[in-house]
User: Fold these one by one.
Assistant:
Number 1:
Amino acid sequence: MPNSQPGSAYFLDERRQTPETHTLSILVDNEPGVLARIAGLFSGRGYNIDSLTVSETEHEKHLSRFTIVTTGTPMVLGQIKNQLERLVNVHRVVDLTVAGEPLERELALIKVVGTGEKRIEALRLAGIFRASVIDASTEHFVFEITGRSSKIEQFISIMTELGLAEVSRTGIAAIARGSKGM
């Protein structure tokens, strides 16, 4: 058993690992309780989920796909992947970040309340960000925007100054680049 006392090379190696953000894609049976088991695995071990999306993707086979974004050291991320693979209803776990830079998108609905110049500026900036107006009145807009999370964060930040009232986000949907499927 390696010595993990301060001063040992093993201990120093662990301390040098910096946290990384990874996107995991998990193919599971679409059955009651699977979400609770996966969420329980994360919470029970003190791991955080930064983003979580899940939906049935193969109706005939009753399979769902989870996309989870989490942050940890390479060692912790490896543990998470191994523990997920051991769950009964899990068919496959792919670390999309390790497989190559994944294609990631998120959808957000953003309500902005305002009148006058702020209203005009919100509409102008929405055009620049390619956000669509999906609801409007003389006092508000609801914008729909899709893209990388950083784009959505930037849009939200700008809209905060113009009367941001409410935000609803889907979380990240991701898929590996290239011709190979999961």
Note: The first helix runs from residue 9 to 16.
Number 2:
Amino acid sequence: MLYQLLYGLHESISAFNVFRYITFRTFLSIMTALFISFVLTPYVIKKFNHWRIKSGKREDVPERHNSKRDTPTMGGSVILISTIIPTLLWADLGNKYVWIVIVALLLFGFIGFIDDFRKLKNQNGKGIKGNTKFLLQVVSAIVISVYIYFGTDFNTSLSVPFFKNFTPDLGLLYILLSVFIIVGASNSVNLTDGLDGLAIGPVLSVCGTFMLFAYLVGHVKFANYLQIFYVRGAGELAILCGAMLGAGIGFLWYNAYPAELFMGDTGSLSLGAALGVIAILIKQEILLVITGGIFVAETLSVIIQVLSYKWKKKRIFKMAPIHHHFELKGWSEEKIVVRFWIISVILALIALSTLKLR
């Protein structure tokens, strides 16, 4: 909104020409999201405490987590507000890709909200049934994927890091891949959200990485030079990634140990889905596996644990997801979180290296 208004003045006042640059608007988006998050979060914490919107007791976590049951939850609502408002202010609202990601945030945020609300109502840590939640996620992902395929000039070729000449065209099968990526990313972030600040750290690493990639793939000269897919209009997603980055940093201020606010499924499901959609739109589908390696590891630990117990009646880990395994081994919560953050930053650097190693 402000972008269209302010840039429209550039013909009479040349200084307003600066608003044409994605880099400048990305900076404004980050700072706006930070401001909204820092102002809104303390108010939300106060109100949620008053309304008793708290996490409650859970049975699927180590016993010491029950000391956190009076911590307000559903903080993901703050992240959504702090992301969407700056995006609406500084992005080109005529860009379809921006709206696709916003819709993903809202759809999966709503699913997470329902789940969080049910948990609060039941007071036993149980939200909507797993099958129901999964079905809602799949349906939402199908709607998004079908629109991307038929409603945009989308390239269904797959970008494979480190191999510039290997770009298989999946055709209609790309819809299935897209659904898998969106649902998988959403649930992966959700599984990672188990310790104070654990999920938001890797989310920030992925956001920062995708913010740069979005700018590069949306710039024809940079894309050709780096031999990556050029996606017309994808540069505007850098502004949305910047908003997510700013909102996430602001949230982390209050979510760091000891957390004053949890993101809940409202935040984890929506952020994961948004990252999945962005990866698809900027043609970095496989790169999400690299830069989001922490999410992948958390998900694989759950799958391995379930299969191992089902087939051999043995558990590989003391508890899954894997961050609980380290907890039960005696690692402090702060040590687990910081080490996972370090790994996430390393993975982000590896992802960035693919720009030249092709």
Note: The chain has one domain: 22-353.
Number 3:
Amino acid sequence: MLWSTMLGGQGDDLPHSLIVNANNEVYVLGTTGSPDFPVTAGAFDGTFGGGQPYTPQGSA
């Protein structure tokens, strides 16, 4: 095993891609409906870029 973590918040979290770059930095791409998803300031783009909107529902 190279990496392991628990990642998520109180709502639905829907990862769709996991990417590792040449510096061994891991990127997780997806959608979250969690108001408490753990991120650092400026770590995500909160704008909608088009397509069909989807808002995750439910809780963990």
Note: The longest strand covers residues 13-20.
